[in-house]
Design brief:
Blueprint lengths: L6 H13 L6 H5 L6 E10 L5 E12 L5 E8 L4 H18 L5 E7 L7 H15 L8 E5 L5 H15 L20 H20 L7 E5 L3 H12 L3 E7 L2 E4 L6 H11 L10 E3 L1 H5 L5 E4 L8 H6 L4 E3 L8 H9 L3 E3 L1 H4 L2 H15 L5 H26 L4 H20 L4
Parallel strand pairs: 3-4, 3-5, 6-7, 6-10, 10-11, 11-12
Antiparallel strand pairs: 1-2, 2-4, 7-8, 8-9
The protein binds nicotinamide-adenine-dinucleotide.
The site of nicotinamide-adenine-dinucleotide has 25 residues, from helix 7 and strand 7.
Length: 418
């Protein structure tokens, strides 16, 4: 899939790229390239057959200058210390890019969740929650869902935390089901910010979204909702993929029907609305107006980037381009709108959920979507102002300039202590 890029090194390189457009001494920036702390823990969990299995889990707290650490928990066989560190760093800059009052964190358990029963996943999740308990809290570190976790896991973590603390504190975690204190609009929030970024990007570039052709890599929470909402803008979804392969219909297909098919059958394979099956790499290099990578990091490396035919890329996944792919696409004038803006809807509505939990007052879905739209469109405006003001080579570097300035301002206001 990739040219073996370490995502933590990618993050550090992205900060260095932006540093060239900022006038900070190197020592100020050096502390923005490393996590403040990383918890690594081994979870011993009883399986359904009575045996014990040991799982490696992590939580990285990258930077707390702008507020409590915030970020998801991922269940995946590739979870590693460096991946979690990178993802926690991207959260810092994402929260700063859209101006919400959080630092960054991320966690994960190394496992393939498809190999375990629901009761085993519950025990694994509660075991992780017990280890996390001293480190998380409504004003300390607030986890959320990520790849292969959702409302179910968030509800278990909240419940474990509340029982151990003998309290009621729904704001300790976000992405919960509505009856456990979740927010309206949270499930669709990431896809919605991808759609809003796409809408603003096409407008800024003077391109018409109506009738534009779109390919979406990864048809999970982020990708399938983005596809559905971009479809609603009048665009034509012509290709999509998941881990089982890719589907294609040059005339476009109904993104909602594809989502329903995946929900019912577990994969996109066999979806009747698409006429051809083809490979994942074919999808990434298709001649489309918009490519939305919405699977995992490092999906597009240098060699794929050389063959990308899309005019615009809006990143739904975190870190889907390697730094070398970024260089190639910048040279080839492909407009890439970065993850730290495009997928920030998830953390933004998590922020709304946390605010609602603390107020014990819940908003309508309409209010959530309106407030999200204001935050993403304001952030987009700041991005293009900065892009034009700094002459940054691409939108990612410009977005990092905005985000780093905000983190450094907060750090300087607080001072370095001890
Ligand atoms: P998910 O598990 O719901 O979906 C992931 C999708 O990617 C699945 O359809 C899977 O089959 C597919 N996939 C995996 N490997 C693939 C490959 N090699 N080629 C094509 N498809 C592949 O996860 P998600 O929550 O949608 O997250 C996807 C990305 O979006 C991740 O990078 C995640 O960090 C990021 N993200 C998610 C949220 C959120 O709120 N869910 C928020 C911000 C960022």
């Amino acid at each position: 899939m990739s040219d073996e890029v370490n995502p933590f090194e990618s993050l550090q390189e992205q900060i260095d790229d932006a540093a060239a457009y900022l006038e900070y001494p190197t020592d100020v920036l050096e502390r923005l390239k490393h996590p403040e702390r990383v918890l690594e823990t081994s979870l011993s969990v009883e399986m359904d057959d009575g045996s014990i299995e040991v799982f490696t889990a992590f939580r990285s707290q990258f930077n707390g200058d702008r507020g409590p650490y915030k970020g998801g928990i991922r269940y995946h066989p590739q979870v590693s210390r460096d991946e979690v560190k990178a993802l926690s760093g991207w959260m810092v800059y994402k929260c700063a890019a859209v101006g919400i009052p959080y630092g960054g964190g991320k966690g994960g358990i190394r496992l393939d969740p498809r190999r375990y029963s629901a009761s085993e996943i519950e025990r694994i999740t509660r075991s992780f929650a017990k280890e996390l308990r001293p480190f998380i809290g409504v004003d300390k570190d607030i986890p959320a869902p990520d790849v292969n976790t959702g409302q179910r896991e968030m509800n278990w973590i909240k419940d474990t935390y509340e029982k151990l603390e003998n309290t009621t504190e729904p704001g300790v975690i976000t992405g919960k089901a509505p009856e456990s204190g979740g927010s309206a609009g949270r499930v669709e929030a990431t896809g919605r910010s991808v759609m809003l970024t796409t809408r603003e990007a096409f407008d800024y570039l003077g391109k018409d979204i109506d009738g534009a052709t779109v390919a979406v890599q990864g048809y999970g929470n982020a990708g399938s909702v983005a596809a559905k909402l971009i479809d609603d803008l009048g665009a034509n979804i012509v290709a999509a993929s998941d881990s089982s392969g890719a589907i294609h219909n040059p005339d476009g297909f109904d993104a909602r029907a594809a989502k329903d098919h995946k929900r019912e059958t577990g994969s996109l394979a066999g979806f009747e609305g698409a006429t051809e099956e083809f490979s994942n790499e074919d999808l990434l290099t298709m001649d489309v107006d918009l490519l939305v990578p919405a699977a995992l990091e490092n999906a597009i490396d240098r060699s794929i980037a050389q063959n990308v035919e899309a005019d615009v890329i809006v990143e739904a996944a975190n870190g889907p381009l390697t730094p070398r792919a970024d260089d190639v696409l910048t040279d080839r004038d492909v407009a890439v709108f970065p993850d730290i803006l495009a997928n920030a809807g998830g953390v933004t509505v998590s922020y709304f959920e946390w605010v609602q939990n603390r107020q014990r007052f819940y908003w309508s879905e309409e209010r959530v979507n309106d407030e999200l739209e204001t935050i993403i469109t304001n952030a987009f405006e700041t991005l293009v102002d900065t892009y034009e003001r700094t002459d940054a080579p691409n939108f990612r570097t410009a977005m990092y300039v905005v985000a780093i300035e905000r983190v450094v301002d907060a750090a300087e206001e607080g001072g370095i202590w001890p």
